[in-house]
Amino acid sequence: MKTLVKVEWQRLWKRKVPWLLLAIIPVIVYVSAVFCQKQNQAFTPDVPQYTVAGNFPVLGLSEMLMTAFNLVAMIIAVMTVTEEYRSGSLRMVLIRTKSFQQLMLAKFFVLVGFLFLYLLIYFLVCYGIGFWMFSTPDTYPQFYHQDPVTLLEGLLYNIQFYGLAFLTLIAISSVIFFVSVISHTMTTALGISMGYLLVSFAYPNVIQLFQPLVGNEMTFKIFFTSIPMIQWEGITMVLAETPRFSGWMMLVLISYFVLFQILLLLVTRKKDIFI
User: Per-residue pLDDT tens for 10-31?
Assistant: First the structure.
């Protein structure tokens, strides 16, 4: 299995798309920094929304996590699975592979590995551009924390934030990867994946209209069954001084991962269905 993962990892980097996705990270971070600089004009330094070097890695990721990063996961999944159906290269790989399930598992590990690398590089670039473009006060306010945090405390918070962001990407990748496996064309895979993301953005906002009927707690629980909403607001609530709905959100992420891994195992039992 290790050899198969290694081979798939090497095959990934023979493509131009992963290199291009990595190359645009500084551009994405710079655009986020410029946006944060404009936002600072509307805030004072005593609010968590005010961007400084210490919190830019989080503020620079928060908007991109549920958009750009989910799209990166979708591109890599579709490229490494569905695109190989169209090109016919999947047949050649299966000749050297013991089972279709092992191949798909290896490809999923490669997808997760790429997302981890992408987050790590994004984190480092955010700190570099953050110290270049923003002020570096000794302490600054943090979301859902009463007392300001130091740069070291902020670093630990940022690492935890990126760790939870990585968990959300694993969960949403399970969904997208399953869609890529059952889709025989790139158009179908991209269409279903985009549809899933759009629905995940839409229904949490709709449920808030019924908050007086279902109650605050149930509204929040339904709201946080959406992975993009966990990425948008949930992570900061989990890392709050007094965490809220952290157990529920972890259960949601685990449920997504387990459910779609089971579905993946079921549909890949017979590889001749897919070639």
Answer: 989 999 999 999 999 999 999 9
